[in-house]
Amino acid sequence: MLIELKNVSVIFEEKTDVEKVALKDINLSFSTDESILLIGNTGSGKTTLIYLLDLLIKPSKGFLLYDGKDPFFYPYEFRKRFGVAFQIPERQFFSETVEEEITYAAKNFGVPFTQEDIEKVLELVGLRKNILKQSPFKLSGGEQRKVAIASILLHKPEFLIFDEPTAGLDLKGVLSVREILKKFKNSGKGFLVATHEPELFEDLCDRKIVLKSGTILEDVRSSVAHT
Length: 227
Ligand SMILES: Nc1ncnc2c1ncn2[C@@H]1O[C@H](COP(=O)(O)OP(=O)(O)O)[C@@H](O)[C@H]1O
Ligand SMILES: [Mg+2]
Hints:
Layout lengths: L1 E11 L7 E12 L3 E5 L6 H8 L7 E6 L8 H5 L2 E4 L12 H11 L6 H11 L15 H14 L4 E5 L7 H16 L3 E6 L11 E6 L2 E7 L6
Parallel strand pairs: 3-7, 3-8, 5-6, 6-7
Antiparallel strand pairs: 1-2, 1-4, 8-9
The site of adenosine-5'-diphosphate has 12 residues, from β2 and α1.
């Protein structure tokens, strides 16, 4: 899928005295088979860009095109193709058990899965099966992040979007996030990872986009050509 942003600005509290321009006149296009590192200081607009890509907020100016179409006319169809893990995983949770949490997105998007698929994604993120009956709210930050990632993998997205995926993870957790991204890439699919720790993911990415104060400061493709 081709994603295009044309002169996109996102302005919060527009025309009030607390107006905040979070993204300013962004022109960006990428294909969902690219592996993209999104970096920038806190407040530079990374999370806002992710909300926009997942169609949770609309541009204040400019427009988005997904395969040449206005995605806001087909939000369900396009959101289904993304697997988004937000910055604070527990804000995404609302189920009583990890199992319900992990299966929610797949059910919601009408994507069939088996018990074996559930076990596979648990293994991939490094969680044990006995966690399924537990409450997602009682887990550690690292486990919650793994649950959030497991839930998005179960609906078999074609593009992953991870917002600060290593927050709350120990080294083992970081390595398992890297493994997930690597496997995804090796299967011909792409991802966008927003992070303030670029060194953890730089080698996995073909493209680096640097945001500063809501604008694109740098957009570079690595010398290894994407095939
Ligand atoms: N809902 C909101 N209302 C008002 N301002 C916001 C809102 N969300 C984000 N902002 C502001 O927009 C800017 C970009 O924020 P954000 O996208 O979260 O940056 P990052 O993820 O790079 O830290 C920040 O100045 C932030 O305070
Ligand atoms: Mg953020």
